[in-house]
Design a protein that fits this description.
By secondary structure, the chain is mainly beta. The protein contains one helix and twelve strands, in the order βαβββββββββββ.
Length: about 180
């Protein structure tokens, strides 16, 4: 289990039989020292960083956002001496603060925009903004029985595209962002 906020050196673990017909890859990885990520879903590359969500991660199973900074020699022998760094960027137990983060994107202003994936007959799924310092704010609410399945921004940064799962829809929202 990772402590929130601190940075941790990353050591990659090689596993064999990765097709995992027994669905035991995560268990074998954990026995070899790997960190388990619960329901890894959204991923977005930023300025030398990669953010990814663990939709049901953490002790409260409400979700986490991880941040990874690759080694400058990623994938080469020298990486052992200069490892990448992993941070538990955000974790919560309060569903009003952040709950079941799924897909995410970096907005033109540098904040993360995270789509929540709450379940139920009429869930209120939110788009949460997260500042580079890890402060969460409510950006928008999607009050419909659908999953918010992704968000991205036009290259000029003036339009946000929000994708809904069922019924399938893409909504364009003009900014500034």
């Amino acid at each position: 289990m990772l402590a929130s906020g601190g940075w941790h050196d990353v050591r990659w673990i090689d596993l064999d039989k990765v097709e995992s017909p027994k669905d035991d890859l995560r268990k074998r990885g954990a026995r070899a020292g790997a960190t388990i990520f619960a329901r890894g879903e959204g991923i977005h590359g930023g300025d030398g960083e990669i953010y990814f969500t663990c939709t049901s991660g953490g002790p409260a199973r409400r979700g986490q956002i991880m941040r990874y900074r690759p080694s400058p020699v990623e994938g080469r022998v020298e990486e052992a001496a200069h490892p990448g760094q992993l941070q538990l960027f955000l974790e919560t137990s309060d569903p009003e603060h952040f709950s079941f983060g799924d897909n995410l994107s970096i907005a033109p202003n540098g904040d993360l925009i995270v789509c929540e994936d709450r379940r139920g007959s009429r869930p209120d799924n939110w788009l949460r903004g997260v500042t580079p310092e890890g402060k969460v704010y409510s950006f928008a609410r999607v009050s419909a029985a659908t999953k918010v399945s992704g968000v991205c921004f036009a290259p000029d940064g003036k339009t946000m595209f929000l994708n809904l799962y069922n019924p399938a829809r893409t909504i364009a929202v003009r900014g500034p962002f």
